[in-house]
Amino acid sequence: MNAPARTPGPGPDATPEHPRPGAPPAAAPSADAPRAEAAPVVVEAPSTAELVASAVATWRTTLVEAAGGSTLADVDLLGDVALDLSAAHPSGIAQLFAGRQTRLSNLVREGSSLSTAKRRARVVGARADEYAQRYGIAPTYLAIGVATWVERTAPDVSTDDVAALAAVMRGRPAVATPTDTPAPADTPASASAPRVVRAPVLLRPVALHARGSGESDYELTLEPSIEVNPVLARALRGRGALLDPLAVARGAFTSSGFDPRPALDRLKALGSAVLEDFSLTERLLVGTFVHPGQVLVEDLDQSSATLERHEVVAALAGDGRALAALARPLPEPIRGDRDPAEERGVGDLDPVQRHVLDVLATGSHLFIDAPAGCDVTGTLAAVVADAAARGRSVLYVPGHRRAATSLTARLTELGLDDLLLDVAPDAGWRTAVTRRLLGAMSLQPQPVDTDAVARLRRDLVAQRGRLSGYVTALHERREPWGASAYDALQALARLTSTRPGPQTTVRLGSDVVRVLDARRREQLAERLAAAAALGAFATRPSETPWFGADLTTNEAADDAVARIDRLVGGGLASLAARAEEVAGSTGLTTAQTLAAWGEQLDMLAGIRTALDVFQPLVFERTAADLVAATATKEWRARHDMPMGLLHRRRLTKQAKDMVRPGRPVADLHAALVEVQRQRDIWQAHCPGGGWPRLPHGLSAIEGQYRQVREDLEQLEQVLTTTPGGGNLLRTPFAELQDRLRRLLADRAVLSVLPERTATIRSLRSAGLDPLLTDLANRRVPPELVGAELELAWWSTVFEELLRADPALAGYDGAALSALAAEVRRLDLAHVASLSAPVRTAVVEQVGATLRVRHAQAESLFGELVEERLTSLRDTVERYPELVRRLRPVLTAAPMLVPQLLPPTRTVDLVVLDAVQHLPIELALAALVRGRQVVVVGDARCASGTTVRELAAVLPEVALRADATRRDPYLTAFLAEHGYAGVLEAVPLPEAAPLVRLDVVDGSGMPDGETGAVESTRAEVEHVVELAIEHALTRPEESLAVITSSPVHANRVREAIMTEVRDNPALASFFDPGRAEPFVVADLAGVAGLRREAIIFSLGYGRTPHGRVLHRFGPVSGPGGEALLLDALGATRHRLVLVSCFAAADLDPDRLRGPGARLLADLLEFAAARGRDEAGPAVTAPDVGAATAPDRLVVDLAERLWRAGLVVEIDYGVAGGRRIPLAVGHPDLPGELVVAVLTDDAAYVAEPSVRVRDRQVAQRLERLGWTVVQVWSAAAFLDPQAEADSIQRAVLGRVADRRARGAVPLAPALHGDVPSGPTELSELGDAQGSRGSDSSGGEGDVTAPGAGSEEDAVDGLRVPARRSVVPRARPAAGPGTAAPEPDAGRAAGHEQPTLPVPGRPRPPVERGLPISAYGDDQLDELAEWIMSDGVARQPAELTAALRFELGITRRGARVDAAIDGAVRRALT
Length: 1467
Prior knowledge:
seven-stranded parallel beta sheet, 45% helix, Restriction endonuclease type II-like domain-containing protein, Rossmann fold, 51 helices, Restrct_endonuc-II-like_dom
């Protein structure tokens, strides 16, 4: 494979760009020389070995340069960081050499010398602490004797690190000249010039601990080990001296005690024999004699041959094949909760943490992104426990000691401290390791009740399934309705909470609701509104005779009016008169209805037809016998009318004789039947009897009748649906005439009747007939008919859903709460049960290994019992399987790893934690030993290269940031400076700002080297005051001071300790033995630091002329932004920023680095937050994008508000986590105490029952909230009971505060509200069913004299109410006067004139939730405030507006609404 030519680099085949130090300069090309064009060169792509070798060379050079000069070769490099005990009191030295704890005051007894010794001891201790925290190693030794000699040879720095370190320190190049190549003639003489070595002789580890108040004394304890300075030993052996360093060191311990004299004499004799100008001075020096980098260089050399086979190291070197191998896809996270029997790890983990365990189980290397606030310790405890349970060895490498301490504490809390072999960075670590290994050999397994564990897991799965099933059923969208039961509850709550609101009890048909989707309902609602506007539901039947008439078009209406007009205009009256006339002429009864008149006319027509056939004689008598005589035999038999033949013949002849001549009859029988029928009708209408008589003009009479009948029949179809009915033909003429006149008189209603009727008909066709009837019965106005339809639809759907899934109907609030509580109990018990199987598995592995390797176990046991362990690395190499099983988790700092483990890849899992500040070179020793590598850190605040470079090559899983008690606005600030989408601001119960800026007047002269005004006296004194104040007022909160520079940190530490020494009352708070002791750290040492309160003192002041020099030390340099972010993440609760200047004093054009720009933003934010403002860096919420509040929550909030509590809906910071409902108490101003959670959309979006039903609440409880879970079904069915439950929680918090004396004893709520939970029904509005109008009633708290005026609350209509929450009054509100400080002023003294608004205060009630005020109301109130003519700044107008509204709390909605009103008022 060919690749383009590479540019020269640091690799072994690279050509240096600059001449080698000491090499002759290259000859300059001649101007006359012809220029030859360089031909392109194609070279092979670098191999993995070449890339790794090049990277190793770079790493090695960096380690050598980082170590600086070696104090092992020159004790003078210690400077002030050394405690000289050469002149110590002999009795004190004897006590120290005897191995007893010895006070410094017993060693140095002269007053001034003791003061100097204490100061030196503090410096040595600070350096040791710095090494311990930063590197995990504290190389503090007592140096016994100092040897001096002259070195004249130039050592090979490629193999002699001490020489290389000394060369770097002295600022001259260290040249490695091959022995077979003569040095150039012009090589500087300094390359081989003699140098004086001043090396300590014997090194004995010593523990240095502060004792007394304010570090008033120190205690020294020597460890039972000693070694010969390797620099001296190498020099002696390099010149032929026969020296066994171990034998010489052991010779210092005799049967009579420790005596270094023989060892010193032996080394002095050897040195005098082989070293030039050798001398040995008997001195005793305490200092840090080994830099960690020296050990790592040697380890890198030992392991370099195998590094190319390590894929992580190769990837760091840039090898593409290694990068591709590391980039394999990770398994997908498991959604929801898994089977408890399949859970890995220990502790209370969230799904992301369990996903980390799943990924590691595949053997993949991993980078765990862990921003500030994550449960890193819990994650790593689970990781190491899971690995140990599976028989894997773990090397846990913390970047600072704080991380190791946290992991140890967590494993101890879980009962798994037996897994750990913690090599602490102190002089006695060997003894501690010996005891830990010895204790592991006698571990006994603890019994585990497997049946109980299995039963617990079964119960957990069952109960969790029930709860999850209910939630799923509640929120599952069901077809064909396209809605869930939760949607129905929300909709019903929204509908029934409005005032006035829909009240229908109608249920639609199942087939109807299935087809009424949202769009269809919207269309029908528009039709309903149109019908209502046309009077469909407001018009009563008695109001118009046209009510209900079936007229759908204007044409039909016009036709009906025309017909009525004809009838009323004479048609009907004329017909009635003709009927009366005919009755008079024929003897018939006068027809009273058109139907009767028609019957008479039909009779007359029939008689006329009969007389055309028969003579009138036929009507003289009944024709019944004639009908029978002319009938058939069968007819007579059927009608039971027997008749003889002769009789029939006679009657038949009579019938024929009655037929008119010349009119043949085809069917005599049928004709006689018709005659008989007409005769019966005549007799019915003519009581006088006689032959029928026909009126004159019968045909005209019939024509008039047909015309009137046609009109009435048409009108009858129209009027059938009216209250009067449609039986017009049988209505008496007088009544009919009157009705028609009334219809004609009310013809005006026909202008809207057709449209109304058509609309109603379409609604009925849609299946809404029952609803239409209900709306008409209740005369619902147009603005509510749409809501009525929605209520009917949602009510029907909800009942359908309950029928479809009966499980939904089986839970009420109490049952759900009990089920959730049971799930939480079982889950916690399950989490607690995870540790025992892990410990049992580890103990069983230990036992099995001890049995298999019995001989080795006996040998190791003997060494441990006799305390012959001098090197853990040697022990691991001789007993590898035993040591890794005894304590499977080895904890060691990066610099201790080479001393503990051989340089081979034998560790199953290497975990690098909290190494953001470390360069990659320091982590290599741990990396190369691991078969699997896990790195935990935050690349955003990484000032070193380890996390950044490893994060770039390893697959990544990001942890969830847990809720912290830091100011939520500070979390929002961090989110806008690199942590967007990672950190989420969680609201706290307290509203007071927890971040502030203190600007002090500090100035001084610039430093000659740095050019900065560093560590002014005023700033140091102010920090001391803050620290002392914190210790006296908040001793329960841990505290740390962070500074930008080590110089300022040292001055602050010394000043505070001076105060502590002078004030014994402060000793307990500043005791270093506290769980989280007080510390002072610079930015470089802040990694892993976490405290409740942080004082961040910038440490840079102004010049005497007041100028800011814009030189901020590490903040202005590379990685300054990361250092600042790490410092801000150190606070758990409070942050005080101390500076000699504010953001306004900085010139943006001179802030060139990201760290300096972040500092300016931080200063501006802290100043604004101290003024109780969000700060310009925090984005304001998008009010327009805010979602509508949960109506069930709004209803609860109203009930709690009426009970006199303080409520906030959707409480939180812009862009952060929201709490659906936060509740406080008037007796706890500025604080909300109860967080109400619901099964809303955010709840359902979390698939894990463990997270949503337990961990979310626990996180809020850790922040100080009391959490109450309200289920939507319970809040809908019995909202008052849920409100009572919330109020009991609030009153419980208040009672607890009163018991602790934090709240003065006072009536709970205005003195008229019972404080006991049994009388909560008297606190709010009266109990009633949902949907009833809850306005008014005894439960309402209304202002005296308040009328019926209503205010809008997010679409709700609620009665105007006054606040029951006492508010703090500002000093200068508009139209209000602050109380005079002196009521007894002399008469006649001129009083100040207060501004008075120029018009009455608008009727905007005080104390309501912010959502109760519309923009118009806020604008009116702001204009009224401004009407006093006083010029106000935005902040002043905001304060005045808040006062008038009675709002003291901060929140996204509150800030957005008030800020908007202020902007509108000032523009």
